[in-house]
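Reopening closed ticket. The problem is back. First fold of the pair:
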Amino acid sequence: MNKKIWALLLLPFVLSLSAAEAGAESIPVQRKAVVRTAARNPAPRASVRKPAAKSSASTEKKTGSLGPDVEVGLLSGGEVTLTGLSEFKAESAGKVVGKYGTGTRLSITRSGNALLLNGKKAGDKVYLTTGSTAPAFAVKGNHYRGVMKVIPSTWGSGVTLVNVVPMELYVQGVVPSEIVPSWRADAIRAQAVAARTYAAFHKNGYRSAGYDVTDDTRSQVYGGATVETESTNRAVKDTAGEIITYGGKPIDALFHSSGGGYTENSENVWGSTVPYLRGVKEYYIGNSWTKTVSLSSFLRTMANAGYNVGKLKGIKLSKLHIGEAHHTADRGISGRVKTITLIGKNGTKTVTGERMASLYGLDSTLFDLSVKGTSLVITGYGYGHGLGLSQWGAEEMAEKQGNTKDFYKTILTHYYTGTKIEKIY
């Protein structure tokens, strides 16, 4: 089928398209956008690494009812402090090295490899425990369940504080940070399973630093017990122990705010093919967003970024068709821009969609270009990288179709191609 190519007529320009397929560029992946509860607007994106080989799901079955422990890096510095919400004790090398009353503020520093608790030496690794799953410690404005592990930082002379918490309690602190708690139950359940799966896949992801995952957008946002809500805790309990698998192994359950009508193939974002991260049509498109810049400013920005083509003759980019599969060299399956060609007096330059998004702070690479007078208008859709679960898409599916038992599983297998939902504990 002939592909109709759309050109911006900035100056005299010819309609043509290079026959060579644009190679997918290996780039840092923009993982997801957290959704705010106040409005249908997403928050800033965060990066994530490419997937690594993981053990099979069956290896996780030797756990308690709350699942395996997840170690979450909370804080590092020359001094870290926390406050006990109940009585707690400090243990090192199997021995109790301190007992503290409710409300005790503990200052933790370091002398060589030895940790100091309120100035008293306590060993090179310390566990702070209460023996309860109730919120136990206050750290940087949040309350946390579980155990606090304190270790010397692997860089410099600082201290690292790690929250060691069972998987189910960890997920309770993730889901309300990553989705709107007032959404449909099946959308929240889908997020709970995705969050649990993400943690299972990324076990030991930051082991060189002493923990599995971070508490911010480098992994998943985790706010501890402070952020828990009734609806999100219920969704976690409804899906307890369930993860998404492909070939019997946990998947890298990436998610983003909105796919803008179609999600993307992994190779068009990070350069490698992942069988369960395939572009699929979704039910939610959302409002478009725009960015308008003067043509003169655009040329200066491009030149400063290394794309100086001299006097501009035109820009080449195939037409975007929202909610449809694309099969052109310059766009991914979803329509997200892979490459834009600048044509000028001094030759041509190719700009990647990711580079364009970075230069102009765009919400996604799902955009079109048009010229109005002396301005270049960028019109786009969606928010985030477009891989895996679309959060707004999940909510739309749940709203329109979520009237059957376990519909969240339908949502998940729609967005993660060829996968299964398995209960591993």
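Second fold of the pair, where the issue appears:
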Amino acid sequence: MKKSTNTWRTLSSLLVASAMLIVAACANSTAVEPQKSASDGAISGGASGGTIKIGMTSALTGPYNEYGEGNKRGVELAIEKWNQQGGIHGKKIELIALDDQLVPDKAANNMQQLLDDKSIVAIIGPAGSGPALATVPLTEVYGIIQINPVAQTTDVTYPNGVNNPPRKTVFSFALQNDVETDVLATFAGEQWKKVGLIHESTAYGKSGMELVEKILKEKYNIVPVGREQYNQKAPDMTAQLAKLKKEGAEVIVCVGLGADLANIRKGMSRLDMNVPLVATNGALSNPYKEGAGDLVVGTIGTMIKAFGENPLSAPAKEFADAYMKKYGKDRYWGDGDTPQLFMSLNVTNAYDGAIVLFEAIKKADSTKTPDIIAALESMKDYQGVNANYTFSGKKHHAIGTDGLGLFQYVKNGDNIQLVPYKK
């Protein structure tokens, strides 16, 4: 998911600005030979022992730490699994994690600190589109793998559009905007004619809603009755919603985070807007449920369906057992017997990214970036928790529309449950 407390803006750091100029001049040409490595890149050919260090910058604290801390837990579980099995060719894996609070400038500074550590061979994070856009120019210039677990904006992985080559060093385990909005807009276009749009003012929100508008127009010849935006953490969206109500919106479609969606839903209630709220995955998050309370009933959201399947796949079951053993039922797991749906976007996305990265390093038998890229791009149908992962030189993301579902909040006695949406 995905997301920032600031809109994408000019980076204050001269180093980051310089990196972006370099990338603009030679973007997506070939894999860059790393300027740094833990050794000569060989793994099994050297002495046993030692470590393989992975860097991470993410929102470990702050208002959106459910993503950063969740991602960190996912990576730590992946590392524990591999280290219990002997590591990668006898070398244990170590994580160095820094907190950026989902702030782009902090993420860029953290990334520079990680890149200055010559023992780090790959980086996971950050947990949002703004911070990711602030850091991918750096990892491109330095020639080091960056695993994207959350950022949904397609520019993070495909700066020249999804029909053009990806950044050589970025591999995405996120639910991309173009994939999620395809499901969201298709659903809205098939159900309603008068569609009202509202979104956060970040790169994630703007780019996502632009894709929704495009699909509505091209597939259903629908022009929304209105499109409104809001700043993250805005306490009141009543004015924007009132405009959409005045225009006769039959449904409100939103691209945004859970805490803000709660304010939107409260605003709809105050305005007596008795129309459905259909939203991106933030609608299925804890901040939305906690903020909106019983008002969540009826809300429909898109989500990776890994934890909505019964029975769980073998990788999902293995992950669930490991998580329950280590953490038990917490805000990430929920209070059910299986993990709640949103865990796919704040824990298992990073878990899958780490597992696939380790598998590629093992296959490459090297910590050199070009060798890891080659191993990743040759990966076919590797079964993870959220998806089966297949990459190529032209495709650096894996989650498609077939991996998503629509889910709705329903009242069951005194309890509110998320169930697969049925027409």
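Update: turned out to be a display glitch only; the data is intact. The chain has a mean pLDDT of 90. The longest helix spans residues 65-84. Please close again.
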